[in-house]
Amino acid sequence: MLVKKIPTTVITGFLGAGKTSLIRNLMNNINGKKIALIINEFGDIGIDREILTGCGDEFCDDKDNIVELPNGCICCTVADEFLPVMETLLEGKNKPDHIVIETSGLALPKPLVTAFNWPEIRHQVTVDGVITVVDGPAVLDGRFADNPSTVEKMRLADEMLDHESPILELFEDQLMSADLVIINKSDQLIKKDQETVIKIVTEPARVGVSVILAEHANVPPSILLGLEAKAESDLKSRDSHHDNSDDHEHDEFESFVIEMDFINEIESFEMKLKEIIRNYDLLRVKGFLNIHGKERRHAIQAVGPRIDRYYDRDWEENEKRISTLVIIGKSPLDRKAIKIAFGV
After folding, report:
1. Which residues are bridge partners to 330 per DSSP?
2. pLDDT for res 179
3. Is pLDDT of 87 > 50?
């Protein structure tokens, strides 16, 4: 008897592009479909999982729906972590209708897609589609685009552009594996700039791949699911800068966790955070803050100089009220100096 394969959607994209927001919007509109979610964090603490489980939605309350892979980039831990998780999902009595994988912002999509051909799982699952989310304003600024003139222009104006080819190659790899590209934060771009970003992301992408604009990563499930790409059977069309290399370890990145007491005044802390990001060329800062006098947990995410923050939920009764941040940057990071800058 032919077994119907469970479709799997791989959501990839650079740090802070909007992958977690895309998933939250998806889960809010899934209409009863049973989704299993695999989150690949970069760092030692599950911030993205907490963002999802703290959202207050019915899906988020069921934490058994969410599996976390926190021990490094998923493309480097396929055999050790990803495959056992997939086998567990597939062996369970209540199999999901669909699997969604949120990769780390540093993950190469192609090794993960290739893993779906492993004998242990290939007869039971298929890659319905690879969706790449990009930060529209960041691409326009030239930070994650292989456009020499734009990169040089931004290099003169922004210290963020000290990032060299590995990041640009990673960005292109994510586009070259995509079945759908979502340009997020399009509301921050005028029409002319939207067209420029579409041109930038289309150049490395595969011929004929759909590129759509999104605000706040709000895209209907009917567009995200049911692509039926069978990507694991279509690897030759998905180029990669790393096809001729066995080295998929991203040694140029590292992360660590900072814990602090309560934050007296959030606006002052945000100004200090921007200064630290600039001084130490940090790629990403994300976590939760304990704000003095507030009963709600304050979520904060920073991608380069852009900072997004909001109160997400009340602190639980037995929860340790502590401010926790994951710091991600190019290796080596001066951890001692960064901690001192935060006052730790």
Report:
1. 253
2. 92
3. yes
Alpha-carbon distance of 303 to 328, in angstroms, equals 10
Let me know if residue 58 belongs to a domain.
Answer: yes
The CB-side HSE value for 148 (13 A sphere, CA atoms) comes to 0
Distance CA 19, CA 105 (A): 9
172 lies in the same domain as 290: no
Other Cβ atoms closer than 10 A to 92: 10
Mean pLDDT of 72-79: 50
CB atoms within 10 A of CB 336: 9
CA dihedral 72, 74, 76, 78 (to 10 degrees): 130
Residue 78 pLDDT class (50, 70, 90 cuts):
low
The C-alpha angle 29, 303, 332, rounded to 5 degrees, equals 130
Please check whether residue 247 lies inside any domain of the structure.
Answer: no
Confidence of residue 65 (pLDDT cuts 50, 70, 90): low
Tell me the residue type at 300.
Answer: I
Residue from 329, 198, 331 nearest 276 by CA: 329
Question: Residue 241 corresponds to which amino acid?
Answer: H
Quote the CA–CA distance of 13 and 22 in Å, as a whole number. 11
State yes or no: cis peptide before 332, omega within 30 of 0: yes
Q: What is the pLDDT of residue 3?
A: 66
Cα–Cα distances (Å) from 97 to 5, 34, 227, 298, in that order, read: 10, 5, 15, 33
Burial of 64 (0-12, 13-18, 19+ CB in 10 A): exposed
Q: Considering 208, 237, 266, which residue would you say is the last residue of a domain? A: 237
Residue of 202, 160, 209 lying closest to 180 (CA atoms): 209
pLDDT in tens, 14-52: 777 888 889 888 988 888 888 888 887 554 444 455 545
* Count of beta carbons in the 10 Å neighbourhood of residue 245: 8
Phi, psi of 115 (to 5 degrees): -60, -20
Show the domain range for 117: 6-237
